[in-house]
Amino acid sequence: MSALVGSLSLGLLFLPFADIILFFFKIIVSFIMVIIAFKYRNLKYFGHNLFYLYMISITLGGFLYFLNNEFSYQRKGLVFFFDKVSPNYVLLIIIAPIILYLYLKEHKLMKSTYNLKYEVKIVFNNREELTCQAFLDSGNKLKDPVTNKYIILVAKDSLKNYIKNKYPIYVPYVALNKTGVVKCFKIKTLIINNQQYSNYLVGEALNDIKIAGVDCLLNGKLMEDLCFEK
Questions:
Q1: Each residue of 214-227: b (16+ CB within 10 Å) or e?
Q2: Looking at CB atoms within 10 Å, which of 36, 57, 110, 161 has the fewest?
Q3: Between the CA of residue 137 and those of 117, 132, 189, 209, 221, what are the distances in Å?
Q4: pTM of the predicted model, to two decimals?
Q5: At residue 230, does pLDDT exceed 50?
Q6: % pLDDT > 90, the chain
Q7: In sequence order, what are the beta bridge partners of 115?
Q8: Class of the 117-229 domain?
């Protein structure tokens, strides 16, 4: 659907609009394409996906432009030539390696990140459900020593509308020579890949989760469970 919207916008090239209007319209269309493909979760997530779209567009467009220049020689008998050196050609040679490097770097980062992302449904004791994007954090080893339940961390802003329990469980933690407590709440079930897990608590993330589009950090214990299912 995203690609279809982008393709339909080509019809505007045949309408008598000024170049500046067409430029801004292309920007708006790219915003719509990203929202259709990835939805809007927060500004950082949106900007990350928009940057990725532009990297692909610039890379593919640059190669097409390069081929156009390569095969746009003038012919005089058996001799093919440019009547002058194109400044665009020189600029492309300088910039293309940089763009290609950024594209490959971003592609590798996103590929490794998305392999550890899951859609998670949290069912609370009052039967309300919260669906969120989660990242499988192997470093998260939090476990309540009293209930022996493992802890997943959810962004505080995402969690606040679902917590009705006035009696949270405070679980101590030690990390990087720092100590503290995590405010946790009991839940009914955790659903991932249509599988239910009940041996988990939900804790409030102390800081913003600095992974684009993610509002939940899964416990490292789930790595064993998910791998066992596969």
A1: bbbbbbbbbeebbe
A2: 161
A3: 10, 15, 19, 11, 9
A4: 0.53
A5: no
A6: 7
A7: none
A8: mainly beta
